[in-house]
Design the sequence.
């Protein structure tokens, strides 16, 4: 079976600096992969380049989603193709309610896929159900997007967006950062609830603790712009004990 | 630059170019036989206009007096706008569809070409069509170049005692009211453009709401400039008698033409005791093309007088069109406990220049005013808020709150805020808040990751930015205005 997401020998530069140096990764539908790595290893660069952010230049290699190259696609077309990025720092948009944003987003994606837009009433019901599952207040749907949201609320809101957009490939960029343990559990539950046989997930994190709640199938260690080790979930536990020092050394050597 | 980025930018440019044709969808012109006064401006032209309209002697004298004053005045140069010298002798000052000469009694007699124009613009002139639709009913006065084509729902309004007609008709049918109020809010020689308007004004709307009457429907005037090289000088006079209420909306469009066209209007509002006027504008004159060719010069004086106690006047404007805008809808808070409000969205794209704002003149006791201004600049546009809050000696306990927010899109546009605040009364409380922000690449990327294209993302962010003002528009127009905001900014990102 071919992979859902296939990253082949990916080299990425920001300005003059090469950040990713030949990264290979293959995620099949139904799998949850975790990428762990020290600061500066290229974790955020990977999430941005997958989502198509300006300024991240692919100098070599390719990214394929369902066999189709994303490299030349703009960000919205990648979203329409089924890629979702939960942001480490979700952005605020004053004056635009969460609900309006969700509706605009879902309808943009549906339009892009040649599907009919959802009418207001059925969309409202659809979102309310999703929000309930994540224990989000209705009130939060009426507030301007992320404005005045706590760290936990912002992250839960990212997961709400994910559950509403139902992507085939979800990337979670440091979703645990800034969360207390209760918020972490709620977020992880939300993510775990979305695991299914059609969907791939890539969880990018610095710490092991998120992986206690979102159990990955495979763990990779990213250092110096490359995957330096791939293993079972136990790899994350080892890392928690020994730290990243070994791997950083490996690359330098 | 990466190939991907180049592709995206090229796609954006292509998309914008493909949109440019439909971007200003009101840009068509109507091929119709017009009767024009000869080019240029002199006493004879004024006499010609006055005679065309069969005006009484006093109004002709009034015009001629304004003209004499105009000759001694010079064009204001303090606004932050630049445009080539206007040759006032190279313009037509009167243009009317020939078919209107026979004074059609009903719409059946109006030239079908004119009716088609309004159909294309989406302006309902047939009352039964309005009734059939789900839309709330709005009475319309349609002004085409220098004349009013039709006014709808006149009879129904008359039953409520409301007078809603073209200015020319008002001069004939209600001369006492016109004579009593004309020029009492905006004096003839208030400024260069009001003097010009007073001399040559052609048509416009007249509204009178009798005491203790709530106008039974929204009133609106739709202005259309069609003929090339023709100035439009309309005049609106709206009087809300004691204890009355009216909500009024004006809309404006013009064909796309390579040369600039002059529009110098005067609007006067009078609110008597306990009366309230809500005046909304959706200004969408042709803004010129991407290179800054063509477009309307919009030099407008609008002023409301809260003449007696407890009166309230509220201006809401969405300014998206015109090459150059010079406009400061103001309130004179003359009575005690009067309220003045100004809610504004001004959007500049490409080479548009905007110098707009308001004046709140506090004369009475316990007067309060509120100014919410949202300026959006994109492309190579320049957008200045210019506002005056002035509290006079006897205006005890005057209050003002001003909030001016500017949003910049890209790095070739500019925003300016020029507030003048003066008080001669120590009990006044005046607040002024101002912010300037930019749509960040992060915000755009976030929206794009959620499936919105760049244009849609900008439109969403801008609509959020304008929300405080949009919610003050009459509901029927809020949705349209929201769309307009998006359309005006097409091509602003790339």
Sequence:
């Amino acid at each position: 079976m071919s992979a859902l997401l296939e990253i082949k020998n990916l080299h990425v530069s920001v300005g003059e600096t090469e950040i990713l140096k030949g990264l290979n990764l293959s995620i099949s539908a139904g799998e949850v992969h975790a990428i762990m790595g020290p600061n500066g290893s290229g974790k955020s660069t990977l999430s941005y380049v997958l989502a198509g952010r300006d300024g991240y230049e692919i100098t070599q290699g390719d990214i394929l989603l369902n066999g189709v190259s994303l490299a030349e696609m703009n960000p919205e077309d990648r979203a329409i193709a089924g890629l979702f990025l939960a942001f480490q720092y979700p952005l605020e948009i004053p004056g635009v309610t969460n609900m309006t944003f969700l509706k605009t987003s879902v309808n943009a994606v549906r339009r892009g896929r040649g599907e009919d837009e959802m009418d207001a009433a059925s969309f409202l019901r659809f979102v309310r159900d999703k929000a309930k599952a994540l224990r989000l207040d209705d009130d939060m749907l009426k507030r301007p997007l992320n404005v005045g949201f706590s760290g936990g609320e912002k992250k839960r809101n990212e997961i709400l967006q994910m559950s509403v957009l139902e992507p085939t490939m979800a990337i979670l960029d440091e979703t645990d950062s800034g969360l207390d343990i209760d918020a972490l559990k709620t977020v992880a539950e939300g993510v775990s609830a979305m695991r299914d046989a059609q969907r791939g997930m890539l969880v990018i994190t610095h710490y092991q603790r998120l992986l206690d709640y979102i159990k990955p199938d495979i763990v990779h260690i990213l250092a110096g712009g490359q995957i330096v080790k791939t293993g079972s979930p136990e790899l994350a536990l080892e890392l928690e004990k020994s730290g990243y020092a070994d791997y950083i050394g490996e690359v330098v050597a | 630059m990466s190939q991907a980025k180049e592709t995206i930018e090229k796609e954006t440019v292509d998309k914008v170019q493909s949109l440019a044709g439909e971007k200003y969808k009101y840009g068509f012109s109507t091929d119709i036989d017009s009767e024009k006064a000869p080019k240029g401006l002199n006493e004879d032209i004024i006499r010609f206009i006055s005679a065309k309209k069969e005006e009484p002697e006093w109004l002709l004298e009034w015009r001629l007096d304004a003209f004499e004053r105009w000759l001694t005045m010079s064009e204001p140069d303090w606004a932050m706008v630049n445009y080539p010298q206007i040759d006032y002798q190279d313009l037509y000052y009167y243009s009317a569809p020939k078919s209107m000469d026979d004074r059609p009694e009903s719409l059946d007699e109006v030239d079908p070409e004119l009716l088609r124009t309004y159909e294309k613009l989406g302006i309902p002139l047939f009352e039964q069509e309005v009734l059939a639709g789900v839309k709330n009913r709005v009475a319309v006065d349609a002004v085409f170049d220098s004349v009013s084509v039709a006014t709808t729902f006149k009879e129904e309004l008359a039953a409520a005692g409301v007078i809603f007609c073209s200015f020319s008709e008002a001069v004939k049918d209600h001369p006492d009211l016109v004579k009593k109020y004309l020029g009492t809010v905006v004096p003839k020689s208030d400024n260069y453009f009001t003097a010009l308007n007073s001399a040559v004004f052609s048509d416009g709307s007249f509204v009178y709401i009798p005491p203790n009457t709530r106008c039974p429907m929204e009133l609106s005037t739709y202005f259309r400039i069609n003929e090339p090289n023709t100035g439009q000088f309309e005049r609106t006079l709206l009087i809300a008698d004691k204890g009355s209420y009216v909500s009024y909306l004006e809309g404006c469009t013009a064909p796309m033409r390579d040369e600039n066209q002059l529009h110098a209007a005067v609007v006067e509002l009078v609110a008597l005791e306990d009366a309230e006027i809500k005046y909304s504008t959706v200004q969408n004159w042709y803004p010129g093309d991407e290179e800054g060719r063509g477009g309307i010069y919009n030099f407008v004086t609008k002023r409301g007088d809260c003449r007696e106690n407890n009166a309230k006047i509220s201006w809401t404007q969405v300014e998206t069109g015109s090459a150059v805008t010079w406009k400061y809808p103001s309130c004179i808070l003359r009575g005690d406990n009067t309220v003045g409000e100004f809610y504004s969205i001004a959007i500049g794209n490409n080479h548009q220049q905007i110098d707009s704002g308001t004046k709140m003149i506090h004369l009475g006791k316990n007067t309060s005013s509120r100014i919410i201004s949202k300026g959006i600049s994109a492309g190579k546009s320049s957008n200045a808020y210019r506002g005056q809050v002035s509290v006079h000696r006897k205006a005890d306990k005057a209050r003002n709150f001003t909030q001016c927010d500017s949003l910049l899109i890209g790095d070739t546009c500019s925003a300016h805020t020029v507030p003048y605040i003066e008080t001669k009364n120590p009990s006044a409380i005046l607040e002024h808040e101002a912010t300037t922000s930019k749509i960040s690449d992060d915000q755009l990327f976030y929206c794009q990751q959620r499936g919105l294209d760049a244009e849609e993302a900008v439109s969403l962010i801008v609509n959020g930015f304008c929300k405080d003002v949009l919610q003050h528009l009459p509901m029927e127009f809020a949705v349209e205005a929201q769309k307009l905001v998006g359309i005006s900014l097409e091509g602003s990102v790339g």
Observations:
- The first strand of chain A starts at residue 5 and ends at 14.
- The domain at 5-242 of chain A is CATH 3.40.50.300 (Rossmann fold).
